[in-house]
Automatic annotation (TrEMBL):
Keyword terms of this UniProt record: Dioxygenase, Iron, Metal-binding, Oxidoreductase, Phenylalanine catabolism, Tyrosine catabolism
Xref: CDD domains: cupin_HGO_N (cd07000)
Annotated catalytic residues: 306 (proton acceptor)
InterPro entries, per the entry: HgmA_C, HgmA_N, Homogentis_dOase, RmlC-like_jellyroll, RmlC_Cupin_sf
Cofactor: Fe cation
Residues of the Homogentisate 1,2-dioxygenase N-terminal domain: 21-293
Binding sites annotated in the UniProt record for homogentisate: 364, 385
Molecular function terms, GO-annotated: homogentisate 1,2-dioxygenase activity; metal ion binding
UniProt similarity note: Belongs to the homogentisate dioxygenase family.
Protein name: Homogentisate 1,2-dioxygenase
């Protein structure tokens, strides 16, 4: 993303960008693809308009507090009980669920991988999923799985729902279309989508003939916008920039469809004779949504020092402990660096939280070499990390003037759980076995007779 394209995007196309979506995070939306399909003033009339069935989809317990309660009412051709048939277990061996403890026997170290090439036969969003790490336990609705995906084939007659968690999708190559039962979401690199637990979706290639990216499957409480504290009522990710789709349906009776359900870490499939994407109208606040990361309004140090990366949190999935996320989604977007007399890149660090990073485009300032778009790094719980030697000496010795960090869009999934690598991730030939060497060039400059260090 260059500055010019960002500016054009912001100035010219807001209305067009929102077309087909409704703005707002967690709003109570209502939408109908056919006029009059939505009951007025009640959820469950004796007979719904057009003979549709009313069905409630609950993303939280009925009794969850109002501010976190999530549910939607769907008005559809058939209730979901008719969208499942005789289920049989299927195998998607590379899509793993927590816990994956003990799968990796790699020595303890900070880790980094080059991007894995997209295989020509990667297949669909389901078969192309590769789990990298997990934490927590899918059976207790805590924790997460981090995946990469490679897609070369659309799900034309296959529909999926994930009972285990919501999925935050971060594309890096290629555009995707999520035809969900609540409407259509299109995303390209630079945007993200969140597909809530239980929502039916088929994933289609949208443009190019291949796609690649990252996914966080969140087993815990829903992603939400972080508190802003003293920052106030604006900046970071603003609620108006989250977009939920307007209702859209397909009527494909008599056409064979395969339904796949992920439940408790297992995969189950059945055949039905119609499309389950048959919701004509819906209302509620439990919805899929998308967000353009270019709309993030960063806040940062305007005099000195490097602020904690939490200032770049887009979404947070809380745990029961305040400030201790099940998982956070954090980005490092283009921004100005203006701090005086400061080491501007991230500092050296050890963390009780675990940090998985990916790069969507450009260069990440703390790792100018070796961390490329589509790659990933894992700085696990209480393992040291920080700028490589090149970044350290560059930032320590340069003359500090206001600097625009452009051509960069990195992100982090940060979690309270230690991340347990999968066998797949541990065996990837793209693993950079010499990654820790990037810090070997850091010299010991200490000289008790020389309090001012000038870079020698
Ligand atoms: Fe860190």
């Amino acid at each position: 993303m260059n500055e010019q394209s960002t500016r054009i995007f912001r100035a010219a196309s807001r209305a067009k960008y929102n077309e087909g979506y409704m703005p707002g995070f967690g709003n109570d939306f209502e939408t109908e693809a056919l006029e009059g399909a939505l009951p007025i003033g009640q959820n469950s009339p004796q007979r719904c308009p057009y003979g549709l069935y009313a069905e409630q989809l609950s993303g939280t317990p009925f009794t969850a507090p109002r501010e976190t309660n999530k549910r939607s009412w769907l008005y559809r051709m058939r209730p979901t009980v008719q969208h499942i048939g005789d289920m049989a277990r299927i195998d998607l061996p590379h899509w793993r669920s927590a816990p994956t403890v003990g799968e990796s026997d790699l020595p303890l170290a900070p880790m980094r991988w080059d991007p894995a090439p997209i295989p020509a036969d990667a297949g669909t969003f389901l078969t192309g999923m590769r789990t990298i790490s997990t934490g927590g336990d899918v059976h207790t609705q805590t924790g997460f799985a981090i995946h990469t995906y490679a897609v070369t084939e659309s799900m034309e007659s296959e529909v999926f729902w994930n009972a285990d968690g919501e999925m935050l999708v971060v594309p890096e190559v290629g555009a995707l279309r999520f035809f969900t039962e609540m409407g259509v979401i299109d995303i390209a690199p630079g945007e993200i989508a969140v597909l809530p637990r239980g929502i039916k979706v088929k994933v289609l290639l949208a443009g190019e003939d291949q796609a690649r990216g990252y996914i966080c499957e969140n087993y815990g409480d829903h992603f939400t916008c972080p508190e802003r504290g003293p920052i106030g009522a604006n900046c970071l990710a603003n609620r108006r920039d989250f977009l939920s789709p307007v209702a859209a349906y397909e009527q494909r009776d008599g056409e064979a469809h395969r339904v796949v359900v992920k439940w408790g870490g297992t995969f189950n499939a059945c055949e039905i004779d119609h499309s389950p994407l048959d919701v004509v109208a819906w209302h509620g606040n439990y919805t899929p949504y998308k967000y353009n990361l270019r709309h993030f309004s960063p806040v940062g140090p305007i005099l000195n020092d490097h602020a904690d990366p939490s200032i770049f949190t887009v979404l947070t999935a809380p745990s029961g402990t305040p400030g201790t996320a099940n998982i956070d989604f954090v980005i490092f977007p283009p921004r100005w660096l203006v701090a005086e007399d400061s080491f501007r890149p991230p500092w050296y660090h050890m963390n009780v939280m675990s940090e998985f990073m990916g790069l969507i485009e450009g260069v990440y300032d703390a790792k100018p070499q070796g961390f490329v778009p589509g790659g990933m790094s894992l700085h696990n719980m209480m393992l040291p990390h920080g700028p490589d030697a090149e970044a350290f000496y560059g930032a320590s010795l340069k003359e500090l003037t206001p600097q625009k960090l452009d051509n960069t869009l990195a992100f982090m999934f940060e979690t309270r759980f230690p991340q347990q690598l999968t066998r797949y991730a541990a065996g990837l030939p793209t693993l950079q076995v010499k990654y820790p060497d990037c810090w070997q060039g850091l010299r010991n400059h200490f000289d008790p007779a020389r309090p001012v260090w000038n870079g020698e």
